[in-house]
Design goal:
Elements: E1 3-6, H1 13-23, H2 29-38, E2 41-44, E3 47-51, E4 55-58, E5 61-62, H3 65-74, E6 83-88, E7 94-98, E8 107-110, E9 125-129, H4 132-138
Antiparallel strand pairs: 1-2, 3-4, 5-6, 6-7, 7-8, 8-9
């Protein structure tokens, strides 16, 4: 069963709209709903498959709206155009949300160890899901 311990204060639709306007973004509806419900947090379960060759990773946390402000500055010239960092793993890799068509709403794994000088080459980016909802459904716990 999926649970989330929120890490930010409850958001209003207006706060999300102001964030979108200030960053010239259009967040997908599913991500807006996610932020209105939790505003980031620590999920349980928190394991996900990047892809067979890459293996499993651990989702540390989803960023709150306040955290997104800082993360956008940190990764501004490092992520592909239209990608925003919404979470991370213990290895310094980033879970990204695509905000431009045709991938709008899809989540991607950004591998910092394979980073290149041109982020738009996307040689270090791996598709995780077509939406935040699909990604949450794919999270799993380690079997004991």
């Amino acid at each position: 069963m999926f649970t989330m311990e929120s890490n930010g204060p409850k958001l209003s639709t207006k706060q999300i709209e102001l964030f979108e306007q200030s960053h010239k973004l259009c967040l997908p509806d599913s991500y807006r709903r996610f932020m209105l419900k939790w505003n980031g947090g620590w999920p349980t379960p928190n394991l996900f498959l990047v892809f067979q060759k890459q293996g499993t990773s651990v989702l540390n946390e989803f960023a709150s709206l306040d955290d997104l402000e800082d993360l956008l500055d940190i990764y501004e010239d490092r992520l592909p155009k239209g990608f925003i960092p919404i979470g991370d793993d213990p290895g310094g890799n980033v879970i990204c949300l695509a905000t431009l068509s045709p991938e709008n709403g899809s989540l991607f794994f950004w591998d910092h160890e394979e980073e290149t000088d041109d982020p738009n080459l996307r040689t270090n980016v791996y598709h995780l899901s077509d939406s935040i909802d699909e990604f949450l459904e794919k999270l799993y716990a380690e079997e004991i």
